[in-house]
Amino acid sequence: MFRDLYDHVVDFFVTLFSHWEIWLFMIVFGASLPLLDPRQIPFFFFTFIKYTWWFWLFLIFWELLRELFLYVQQQKYKQKEAAPEKYALFEIRIPRELEKSAKSMEHVFQALHGMGNAPGNWREKYIEGQVPLWFSLELVSLGGQIHFYLRMPKKHTNLTEVAFFSQYPDVEITEVKDYMRELPATTAELYALGMDLWGTEFILAKEGAYPLKTYPMFETGSAEKQIDPLSVFLETLAKIKGGEVVVVQMLISPAGKDWAKTYDELVKKLRAPELVETGGEAKMPVAHTAKKTEVINAVENKLTKPAFNTLVRLCYMSPGTILKEGSGFARGGITGAFNQYSAPNMNAFKANSGTTTRIDKWKFPHVYVDKRLEYRKQRLLHNLRNRVNPPETFTGKLFTSFFMEWNFDSVSYELVTDELATIYHPAPTGVLTAPHMRRVESKKAGPPAGLDIFGAEEDLERFKKKSTS
Q1: Do 317 and 355 sit in the same domain of this protein?
Q2: Domain assignment present for 285
Q3: Which of 169-183, 248-262, 386-400 has the weakest average pLDDT?
Q4: Which three-class secondary structure state does DSSP give residue 221?
Q5: For the ranges 35-44, 295-304, 387-396, 420-429, which has the lowest average pLDDT?
Q6: Are residues 312 and 413 in the same domain?
Q7: CB 131 within 8 A of CB 199
Q8: Which of residues 64, 81, 98 is at a domain's end?
């Protein structure tokens, strides 16, 4: 929280001194000082401030007011466009025979990226409060029964189905009732059922420009040696018992086309040659090592792909006795499964300690441990059920904070299409078999050619008259 506050204060002063009015005031005031009697300088200064304090106060608080206004407008937009009734939950039912790799899912994500609605001008951003609408990719185990879910805006349903069926023609996408409504809404309801929860969010170990390990790195060698990283998730999810629930939730929204510009300075720093002392003060540039060159190429390759602002959330619910006595398999298994995507010298997932439902009393601020833990559990449960993305502004994070449990730790980051496809894609044949995951038993087929749709000619005429009446 203090790091975010410090960064915000620094950004505020950088923005403040970027206004020409501030520099004009400093120049005029500084140039007038030699013309004044030194004894009149304090009087002149306080008189000037007395009559213009409102203007300077406005400039000082302008950034805060701007973010506050933006937060209010964005909340209005979310209540209107991201309301539950404007979203639908679909289950992806996978056929028994599926030989598609994660590469097919990458094409699906490329199509989904084109549905982004990032604000294009100041009116859309500040007046309408537009924010990119998000999708929710969910891998869920309900007592060992595994489900693939996709939650999306209803207006994107047709385009999303086209994107899926173009790559996975045998997959079924069926709208289903939201299983989240069957789960407790509050920790009080959870405790009343004799259950408890553990959860966290995942962040990247390095900046978003560094890539994770993706599916091409798993698909090397012969067919027998190829490994689908999804198998570790599914095997772990299949082992949990009745009464236990595991949810892996990925919230994604298309990033802007110029998202890579954020990392221009990082790329320049990586490309800069290393200097080696040759004696005295002279230094000579040397070529990059093979590992450094590999990192540079990987970073530049990632920055050329479409990206999604991503938030990965994990929640495990179970009866309280199981959570205390033997939940390490589910918690450690899922958390460990994310270690598969760690790439040497590149990037990796790690648990976000600021959102994990565990409080260390030996760490600052040391007090109100139980209350802070309860707030954190309730926030995680609320965010999970409602698929909440973190606020975009500092003011929004501040207004959604609790006493001594600040909402500054939940962050999103950029993952590109091949990274997302590696983590989330329909399970191919051989990864996991029934009874852990219900699969479509038969392939879909189109109607035979020449099929009479309307019947005889008189039936067609009767249909035309009915449709016009």
Answers
A1: yes
A2: no
A3: 386-400
A4: coil
A5: 35-44
A6: yes
A7: no
A8: 81
Domain contains 232: yes
* Residue 32 scores a pLDDT above 80: no
DSSP annotation string for 69-126: HHHHHHHHHHHHHS-GGGEEEEEEEEES-----HHHHHHHHHHHHTT-----SHIIII
Same domain, 196 and 50: no
Number of residues in the chain: 469
Residue 249 near residue 136 (C-beta atoms within 8 A): yes
Give the integer Cα–Cα distance in Å for 78 and 72. 10
Ordered DSSP codes for 226-289:
---THHHHHHHHHTPPTT-EEEEEEEEEEPPTTGGGGGHHHHHHHHSPEEEEEETTEEEEEPPP
> CA 354, CA 356: separation in Å to the nearest integer?
6
Q: Which residues of 234-255 are buried (b: 16+ CB within 10 A; e: fewer)?
A: bebbbebeeebbbbbbbbbbbb
Task: Please give the single-letter amino acid code of residue 428.
Answer: P
d(CA 459, CA 469): 15
147 sits in which H/E element: strand 145-153
User: What pLDDT does residue 450 have?
Assistant: 52
Which amino acid, 110?
Q
Same domain as 386, residue 363: yes
Q: Which of 229, 207, 145 is nearest to 423 (CA)?
A: 229
3 domain residue, yes or no = yes
Q: Is residue 401 part of a domain?
A: yes
Cβ(415)–Cβ(396) under 8 Å?
A: no
Amino acid at 57: L
DSSP characters over 321-382: HHHHHHTHHHHHHHHHHGGGG--TTS--EEE-TTTSS---TTSTT-S-HHHHHHHHHHHHHH
pLDDT band at 341 (very low <50, low <70, confident <90, very high): very high
Residue 248: name the closest of 336, 168, 157 by CA.
Answer: 336
Residues 42 and 183 in one domain: no
Regarding whether 109 and 64 lie in a shared domain, the answer is: no
Residues near 134 by beta carbon (within 8 Å), at least 6 away in sequence: 82, 251, 252, 253, 309, 387, 389
**Structural domains in the chain (count):** 2
Residues 105, 59, single domain; the answer is no
Given a contact cutoff of 8 angstroms between Cβ atoms, the answer to whether 63 and 391 are in contact is no
CA distances from 454 to 447, 457, 467 (A): 14, 8, 13
Query: Per residue in 236-271, pLDDT tens?
Result: 888 888 889 999 999 999 998 899 999 999 999 999
Q: Are residues 115 and 70 in the same domain?
A: no
Q: Which domain holds residue 74?
A: 1-81
Who contacts 439 (Cβ-Cβ below 8 Å, separation ≥6)?
A: 93, 94, 95, 96
